[in-house]
Write a structure and sequence with these properties.
The protein is mainly alpha-helical and 143 residues long. It has one domain. It is 51% helix and 6% strand. A hairpin with a 2-residue loop joins strand 1 and strand 2. The longest helix is centred in the middle third of the chain and has 19 residues.
Length: 143
Amino acid sequence: MRNCNTETCGSRFHINCNTNFNILKVRMETILKIYNTLVLPTFLYGSENWTPTALKRRRTEAAEMKLLRPLAGYTLYDHKTSDYIRRELRITGILDKIDEYRWNWLLHLQRMPQNRIPLKSHHYRPQGRRTIGRLKKCWREQL
């Protein structure tokens, strides 16, 4: 384990909670405030426009639990489920928040006047087939 307070994993940035927070010295409310003000906005930035595949959803949940498990004082070997840890910390899952953000964006699009560019791009339907490697479903089909 590194002795630094942050790690860079590919293009993702995450806090290494094992070395940052000594659970016995920092109050749980303080840790949850840090999680809600720093970690959640980083995870959720631009999420209303994502088209998440099953793999991306699993990786997002795994990254979230990698942060939450040490905050709750557990290790992977304690065999606590994700739902148990979320209930103990009294937070909702990040995938639920992403789904909520996407629904709010759709409602915002429906309220827009017809001449707005985001609404025009939402209603745009390209002709022809998708190229190899593109997602089979678009944003509208995954709501």
